[in-house]
């Protein structure tokens, strides 16, 4: 194979996009499959970029291509350029009635229960030819936006840094969810009675801490949970006919109110549920339509 050209002017958008895909997948082979090119083409392009930037860009560790610090710097800037190109290529108009695109929404259990059903119904009504994919946001939903794995992110994830836009959908707070026969079900909980409850703690992992826990700890308190669960899924089955109490977002608690009691929490941990998107989709007519639809559904 011929030696790659080390002239920086030979770098094009395709090469930068290939760099992004290798970084995303951690594999030259997987990148070649995703881009529908030969692996030799991927190797040649990476070699050209290495020569231009005077850096290995990727090193192999544990069977995976791991990016260097210099590669991360290059990617941060190149993603902005790729986003600008995307904006220039977006059509000026969007007709939902004849659209056939797929939209991917990153969110978690709360949004899947309370927002996604109505949103999917609205999309199918206005754009029957479109398809919807819902993926977990976890703690890295913003990276899914940057890596083009998701079109929008919904949840308590407002971002203020460069490269993102966000819109507040509504305010939310935490409340206590318990069996209707619980001894304190009809009692206004003060701090002492709340701390003495048999708590179910939802530990989402990934370094995420619920707002009520931050408020509680800021006041110098801690709870000793009886049960720790990774998600609110199945919470009603766990709590019903027991003395267990879970602190959950109020709307999620009210979703179970036909079977359980929702009571005010002395540490409401108020937060905003937001719609977040990456700058490279900001000017897209399709994405503007999607964001407006999400806003309308969330505000009902």
UniProtKB/TrEMBL annotation:
Cited InterPro entries? LysR-type_TF, LysR_HTH_N, LysR_subst-bd, WH-like_DNA-bd_sf, WH_DNA-bd_sf, YidZ_PBP2
The record's listing under Gene3D superfamilies reads: Periplasmic binding protein-like II, Winged helix-like DNA-binding domain superfamily/Winged helix DNA-binding domain
Q: Which residues form the HTH lysR-type domain?
A: 11-68
Q: Which Pfam families does this chain map to?
A: HTH_1, LysR_substrate
Q: Name one GO molecular function term.
A: DNA binding
**Assigned keywords, A-Z:** DNA-binding, Transcription, Transcription regulation
- Tell me its family: Belongs to the LysR transcriptional regulatory family.
Entry-linked PANTHER family: HTH-TYPE TRANSCRIPTIONAL REGULATOR LEUO-RELATED, TRANSCRIPTIONAL REGULATORY PROTEIN
Protein name (Swiss-Prot/TrEMBL): Transcriptional regulator, LysR family protein
């Amino acid at each position: 194979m011929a030696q790659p050209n080390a002239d920086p002017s030979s770098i094009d958008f395709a090469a930068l996009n290939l760099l992004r895909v290798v970084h995303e997948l951690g594999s030259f082979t997987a990148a070649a499959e995703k881009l529908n090119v030969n692996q030799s083409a991927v190797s040649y392009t990476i070699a050209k970029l290495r020569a231009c930037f005077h850096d290995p860009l990727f090193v192999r560790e544990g069977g995976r291509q791991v990016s260097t610090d210099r590669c991360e710097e290059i990617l941060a800037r190149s993603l902005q350029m790729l986003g600008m190109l995307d904006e220039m290529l977006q059509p000026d108009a969007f007709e939902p009635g004849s659209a056939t695109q797929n939209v991917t929404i990153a969110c978690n259990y709360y949004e899947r229960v309370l927002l996604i059903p109505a949103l999917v119904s609205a999309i199918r009504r206005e754009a029957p030819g479109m398809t919807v994919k819902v993926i977990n946001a976890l703690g890295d939903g913003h990276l899914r936006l940057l890596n083009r794995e998701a079109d929008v992110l919904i949840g308590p994830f407002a971002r203020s840094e460069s490269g993102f836009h966000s819109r507040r959908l509504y305010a939310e707070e935490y409340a206590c969810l318990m069996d209707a026969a619980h001894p304190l079900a009809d009692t206004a909980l003060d701090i002492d009675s709340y701390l003495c409850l048999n708590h179910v703690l939802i530990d989402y992992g990934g370094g995420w801490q619920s707002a009520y826990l931050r408020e509680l700890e800021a006041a110098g308190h801690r709870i000793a949970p009886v049960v720790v669960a990774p998600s609110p899924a199945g919470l009603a089955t766990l709590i019903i006919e027991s003395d267990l109490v879970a602190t959950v977002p109020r709307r999620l608690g009210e979703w179970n109110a036909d079977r359980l009691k929702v009571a005010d929490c002395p540490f409401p941990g108020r937060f905003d549920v937001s719609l977040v998107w990456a700058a490279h989709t900001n000017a897209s007519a399709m994405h503007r339509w999607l964001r407006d639809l999400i806003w309308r559904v969330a505000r009902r």
